[in-house]
Amino acid sequence: MTSYLCAISFGNLVTRLPGGISQGLVWGLMALGVFITFRILDVADLSVDGSFATGGAVAVMLMIAGVPAWAATLIALCAGLVAGLITGLLHAKLGIPAILAGILTQFALYSINLRIMGMSSNQSLNPNRYKMVITMRNIPMAILIGVIISAVIIAILYWYFGTEQGSAIRATGTNNEMSLALGINTSNMKILGLILSNGLVALAGALMAQYQGFSDVNMGRGAIVIGLAAIIIGEILCDAIFKKGCNFAIRLAFVVVGGIIYYIVMVIILWLRLDPNDLKLFTAIIVAAFLAIPYLRGKSKNSFGWAGKRSLPYVEAIKNSLRKGV
């Protein structure tokens, strides 16, 4: 009992939090990619589980081959762009539903990732031999680099989605039929959105592989769920803080914040010495809870509003009776 209390001491939690924040920043970057398809395009893309691992595999193998970390990370981003292009072509040009196109790409990437890593399920990087963009050996620097990269990506996305092409992508996700009527090539816009999404996811995968010191063919499993959790948590916080609404840049920033909060929750779960095998269960519960909050909040408001409208005739009747002296 004494050893358990020592393990869950507040000081122990404080020492774990910086690591959770640094990982949350990387997963927040991945969530920005999911945000493009889930919120902007209104498309369910499941290929991100595969492209996340692709980014890690490409970055690690290139670094082992002697490529500088920054160049390996950029090439990993390009590999993600190609993965998104494949999903986009399957969906927009071959008429395969988006969810099935994503699953097909994800399945194909599993074999491709194995081949990239020399038919090995994982490849390790020794931080003493390779200079990395981000590493868990230096948590404060990892947090700083994560914040800088996140800020740069958010600025680029804010600028891009304000351009004519970016606005066309947003219009496609908002109303596909109206966009077609306005002369927008919605098929190409969907392909572009999927390309950008998977590119960001692969970038996050490359950074995560460097951070943890290895790539694994299964490292992207469940990435879509974590991305959705970050988005929902960030949106709820954004709406709670900015009652009158927030602009696009702030909403993107809160997606990254959602990733940080998600991983802080995971750190707390591990700090409480709960079974690590139940992390997937806790993840599902957290995502379900945050997904339900907006619905329940809206339903409660509608219920009160409906009840208020129903009570109006009775209130008016009471007022009339009082005027007549009844």
CATH topology of the largest domain: ABC transporter involved in vitamin B12 uptake, BtuC
Integer count of domains: 2
What's the average pLDDT?
A: 86
Overall 3D form: globular
In CATH, the architecture of the largest domain is Orthogonal Bundle
Biggest sheet, open or closed, and with what strands and sense?
2 strands, antiparallel
Q: Determine the strand fraction and express it as a percent band.
A: under 5%
Q: Identify the CATH class of the largest domain.
A: Mainly Alpha
SSE pattern, N- to C-terminal: HHHHHEHHHHEHHH
Give the C-alpha Rg. 23 Å
Describe what you observe in this structure.
The mean pLDDT is 86. 78% of the residues lie in helices and 2% in strands. By secondary structure, it is mainly α. The N and C termini lie far apart (71 Å). The protein contains twelve helices and two strands; from the N terminus they run αααααβααααβααα.
